[in-house]
Amino acid sequence: MATYYELVELPAERLQRIPLGARVVVRYRIPGGLTDVLGELQDRDASSCTVLTRRGPVTVALADVRAAKPVPPAPARRGPAPGPGDQD
Questions:
Q1: pTM to 2 decimals?
Q2: What does DSSP say about strands 23-30 and 48-53: parallel, antiparallel, or unpaired?
Q3: Which of 2, 7, 43, 56 has most Cβ atoms within 10 angstroms of its Cβ?
Q4: What are the average pLDDT values for consecutive 10-residue runs of the chain, which has 88 residues?
């Protein structure tokens, strides 16, 4: 069930409460629809936020944000699968 703050708080306001360095997902409006950005909340000001993704920083205007929330840390990457000649 959603909390009171999740029901009345705007997504851009929620971003202001999330600490810098936290891993976040932000859904925002683009021409033709919506898209998401996932990564570390790197910077924010009164009009935009920057999320550091695997491909580099993405800056999003707060006016375009439709949803935002912190997410758990990324799972650890697994090593390559053992090949046929590899031994334990």
A1: 0.76
A2: unpaired
A3: 43
A4: 64 89 96 97 95 97 94 84 68
